[in-house]
Design brief:
This protein is of the alpha/beta class. The chain has a single domain (about 5-135), classed as STAS domain (Transcription Regulator spoIIAA, 2-Layer Sandwich). The chain has 4 helices and 6 strands, in the order ββαβαβαβαβ. Strands 5-4-3-2-1-6 form a 6-stranded mixed β-sheet. Strand 4, helix 3 and strand 5 (about 105) form a beta-alpha-beta unit. It is globular, with a radius of gyration of 14 Å.
C-alpha cells in the first residue's frame, strides 16, 4: 500500500485561503483521508482551497472523484478548489477526463492564490503553527523502516 501525504498552511494572513500540499499516491485504499481533509476544511469555515500537486505521483479515479464531488460544497459557500503544479502524468489524466471544465488548474500555487482576487496579500504564505489545521501532516500506509 502506497502512502498519501497531506500538509496545510494558509496563503494569506486572514486565514481565508488554505494551501494543501498533497504528496505520494492517492488510491482507493487511502482516498478516505482526502475526503476527511475536505470535511475538516469545510468544518473550519475555510472555503478557498489550493491543492498543490507538486509532490503527488499518482491519483486514481477514487481521488479524482472526491475532488469532483467536493467542489460543489466549496462553491456553495463562496469558495472554490483550485489545483496547482500538476506533474505531466497527472495533468494528462486531468485533461483526458476533461476535469478542466469543473476544476481550474494553475502552473504555480502563487497563480492559483492570485486567481481568488482577494484584496489581501495572498502571496504572503503563512507558515505559522498556530494556523495549521488538524489534518496537517497526515500520512498513511506502512511506516518507513527506522
Amino acid at each position: 500500500m502506497e502512502k498519501i501525504q497531506i500538509d496545510s498552511k494558509f496563503a494569506d494572513k486572514n486565514g481565508e485561503i488554505m494551501i494543501v500540499e498533497l504528496g505520494g499516491h492517492v488510491d482507493q485504499s487511502n482516498s478516505f483521508q482526502l475526503q476527511k481533509m475536505f470535511d475538516d476544511i469545510i468544518e473550519s469555515k475555510v472555503f478557498k482551497v489550493i491543492v498543490d500537486f507538486k509532490s503527488l505521483h499518482y491519483m486514481s479515479s477514487a481521488g479524482w472523484g472526491i475532488f469532483v464531488g467536493e467542489v460543489k460544497r466549496f462553491r456553495e459557500n463562496g469558495g472554490d478548489i483550485r489545483l496547482a503544479a500538476m506533474n505531466p502524468e497527472i495533468n494528462d489524466v486531468y485533461q483526458m477526463l476533461e476535469f478542466y471544465h469543473i476544476l481550474d488548474d494553475f502552473t504555480t500555487v502563487e497563480e492559483a492564490a492570485a486567481s481568488f482576487e482577494s484584496d489581501d496579500d495572498v502571496l504572503d504564505i503563512v507558515d505559522d503553527d498556530d494556523k495549521t489545521l488538524p489534518f496537517s501532516g497526515i500520512t498513511s500506509g506502512p511506516e518507513p523502516d527506522s
